Amino acid sequence: MNIFVSSFRSYTANWKWVAPILLLSLFIFATTAQAQSLGYEGPTGVFVTPLALTAASPAKGLGAPSVSYHFLAGGPVTGDFSTVSTTVGFAKRFEMGYTSELHAAGDQRLTPLWNSGINIVHFKANITPKALAKVAAFSVGTILRTDDQIGVNINNLAAALITGAKIKPVLASQKTTNADVYLVATKIITQTKPVPIILNVGIRGTNASLWGLGGNSPGFEGKLFGAAAFVFTGPAKSTIILASEVSEQPQHISSATATATLGSSKAATLFDIPTSEVYAVRLVPFAKRKLNIDAGVLHAGGNIDNPLLNALAGGHVDLNMRARVAFAISYGF
Asked: Is CATH 2.40.160.40 the classification given to domain 2-332?
């Protein structure tokens, strides 16, 4: 377990200047244009769910890139998570991008489970038919995650728990990749001026639990997500957006451990991960600059009853992922 922590801290040390450099560059290179915001995994979106809108681009060719930094204070059990993203639009209809997700270990024995830097690539295409253009914008997209070691780490943990016992652990075949494929619709209601409303709803097929932070789910599952936001005019022509979003999650992960010690070959699949909720505020401080600043609160899970983790923690495990604070900053060049 200590090997996991030390190797990760060495990796993270190389990235300790990424956040401040990125934040500084956002202000140095601010230019006139409309606001542009990326979600936690890179797509144009709310805090953790994608919108049907795509990154700005000309009718032909690539647009200027958008960049973002997200930070999630996951707490002492899971540790803290950061993502650095870049996304580019093209042909006014498509966008693609890359995100690097980094983890900083907490102060409890379980945090090494999350010690992996996940690589994320995404692609989105606006497919709005002309007949529905006045109804809403529609897009399809995919998010692919690689180097997700959570399942492998759980398997290693299961084996470590029974070291010295005269039994062979029952371990699931773990994959280090998972993905989402989604369809999303976004509607901006302007008839409610002076407070426009943004509505967003979608469905995704996924084999990732908690966007990969919970590892792979046993199979591909269909899950709903949605968001609502209210747009207010702030001081000095700034914009303040109050938003709430929800995202259903696969409730199990694909892992198994020793039947003789923990009572079931599926002991490690018995997680109960609730629907994730985010309450956020977005500030667009300058009307003519593509700068967004987000702050939010995430509810992603509390107590879980899982034989494997119970054995390690000496009782029911509290992930302490209720009311976790997050912030983000995005800028489009």
From this structure: yes
